[in-house]
Design brief:
Elements: H1 13-35, H2 49-52, E1 53-58, H3 64-75, E2 80-86, H4 90-100, E3 105-110, H5 115-124, E4 130-134, H6 144-151, E5 157-166, H7 175-198, E6 208-212, H8 213-216, H9 219-226, E7 229-230, E8 234-235, H10 240-250, E9 254-258, E10 264-267, H11 274-297, H12 300-303, H13 305-335, H14 348-366, H15 368-373, H16 381-400, H17 416-429, E11 479-481, E12 487-489
Parallel strand pairs: 1-2, 1-4, 2-3, 5-9, 5-10
Antiparallel strand pairs: 4-6, 5-6, 7-8, 11-12
Length: 494
């Protein structure tokens, strides 16, 4: 196609600039991914799964796949697994729990099927230092928990994510599952590179992510988490992982991601066209959260400037991607006009073929990490190219429909307003004691308000009766001051 510059060089300047810009940053991302290294497991870890980890699984329709996932979680020896479901699903889920491990799996219920309500109920019933949220079909390698806990050795780290891979629902992957696998490969590269470059991440995926309990027990967090509105009008149920990630940034906590085989979970995706509905929901959540991060909260600019750049890049990506076919269409049109009338000398098929070859080569290069392990998926690269253009149009549609907050792929999700009313009704009972827990939840004889086991008293749940805590809205969420204004560290240590 460079030969076309003999006809009209300025036509190709924007095409070249866009291409140079896109692939320069792609090479930077690949270089960061290549040099990234996961946090190693310490010889004497501060946190031990059997004492410090509670796994919380919000679900409404877990089936047989839950048993395989639960067995994989139990290999890591967590202290407890909390299954949070709606009341009508108590019986079936209790049966599943009993088949796996009735001693370490507890099933709790909420009045309405609402993911954030379920997660907050699990948080309130947690009695360990670390909470791990997991999807009911997420299958873990045996080493996942030790690798996740290794990141919390840094007392400034508040949340930890993992890498992911698709597990086929059937005997072989459908085209939809392969597309999802392609997307996860690219995501694994993106999150490891952003973590390596400036320590940030656009989203700690809700499929499996760990957090310090002290952060999530904060009444301010629980209220904001369950009263999250878009434009102050549309209440959100999905997008919980985006909210949690933004909370880490806005309250001064660092995040970390373990991208390695030892911490790579397997997760199923929709094996049919319903995958597109999942993508649409994720895309709306991304628009809403990224716009908030960049233009409303704005902490991301100073905390993680590279992540801020990637968010801006995603905002303009649909437009830059669609410029390509528009420009090619213009060139094809010009090639049908005689040269002496201002047309181009190359035939239209030459232009189209050159563009297809370029797309195939560059998209295949982006997928090389995936194709290295599954070379048979190379036949799906054309579908991935077409999906890319569909996705660009979908992103624009999602931008115009951010007021739609439904789940999209799951029936039975309860009314969000009713769920929030249930939360508020429950909160009225504990208004005088924001740290109250269910009966029997306390095991610390020194301080009955602490849900944590004996440690050096660095947690705000371990304050003496005369101590007054004051928290800033950001930057010092891991610090407190006593009555005399002396700053004390808040964290965990043995």
């Amino acid at each position: 196609m460079l030969y076309l510059t003999a006809d009209s060089f300025p036509v190709f300047v924007p095409f070249g600039i866009i291409g140079f810009y896109r692939y320069l940053w792609f090479l930077i991302r690949v270089a960061a991914w290549w040099t990234y290294r996961p946090v190693p497991i310490p010889e004497n870890p501060t946190y031990v799964a059997s004492e410090d980890v509670t796994i919380i699984v919000p679900t409404i329709d877990a089936g047989e796949e839950f048993k395989e996932a639960a067995h994989s979680w139990l290999v890591g020896k967590p202290k407890e697994i909390l299954i949070i479901t709606e009341e009508k699903m108590l019986g079936p889920l209790q049966d599943l729990a009993n088949q796996v491990d009735p001693e370490r799996i507890r099933v709790l219920t909420v009045p309405f099927a609402n993911k954030r309500l379920q997660m907050s109920h699990g948080i309130k019933n947690c009695t360990t230092d670390i909470i791990v949220f997991a999807d009911d079909d997420a299958i873990w390698p045996p080493t996942l928990l030790p690798y996740v806990l290794a990141c919390f050795e840094d007392q400034q780290v508040g949340g930890v994510g993992t890498s992911q891979r698709v597990q086929s629902v059937g005997n072989r992957m459908t085209v939809w599952e392969v597309l999802a696998a392609f997307r996860l490969t690219i995501r694994n590269i993106e999150i490891s590179s952003s973590t390596h470059i400036d320590g940030g991440i656009p989203c700690l995926s809700g499929r499996t992510a760990a957090y310090r309990t002290v952060i999530l027990k904060d009444p301010e967090f629980l209220h904001g988490f369950t009263h999250d509105f878009w434009l102050g009008k549309y209440q959100l149920n999905s997008g919980d992982d985006k909210f949690l990630t933004r909370w880490m940034v806005s309250h001064g906590w660092n995040t970390q991601v373990q991208v390695c085989k030892e911490a790579e979970l397997l997760s199923t995706m929709k094996p049919n066209w319903r995958f597109l509905k999942q993508v649409l929901r994720w895309t709306r959540n991304t628009w809403r959260s990224d716009l908030r991060s960049l233009f409303m909260e704005r902490y991301i600019w100073t905390q993680h400037p590279y992540v801020a750049y990637t968010m801006c890049d995603k905002l303009i990506n649909p437009f830059t991607l669609l410029v390509g076919p528009c420009l090619v269409s213009y060139l094809v049109y010009k090639s049908t006009i005689p040269v002496d009338a201002g047309g181009y000398h190359l035939p239209w098929w030459n232009i189209v073929l050159s563009y297809v070859v370029w797309l195939s080569a560059t998209r295949t290069a982006k997928l090389l990490p995936h194709l290295w392990n599954r070379p048979q998926d190379i036949i799906y690269v054309p579908a991935f190219i077409l999906f890319g253009y569909y996705f660009a149009i979908m992103k624009l549609y999602a931008l115009c429909t951010l007021h739609e907050t439904g789940w999209g792929t799951r029936a039975g999700i309860g009314d969000i307003g009713a769920a929030t009313a249930a939360i508020d009704a429950g909160n009225e009972k504990t208004a005088n004691n924001p740290y109250s827990q269910p009966a029997g939840a306390f095991s610390n004889s020194q301080n009955p308000l602490s849900p944590f086991r004996d440690q050096v008293p660095l947690s705000p749940y371990r304050d003496t009766p005369g101590s007054t805590l004051s928290y800033s809205n950001r930057g010092n969420a891991n610090r407190r001051t006593d009555e005399e204004g002396v700053e004390l560290q808040v964290g965990y240590a043995r």
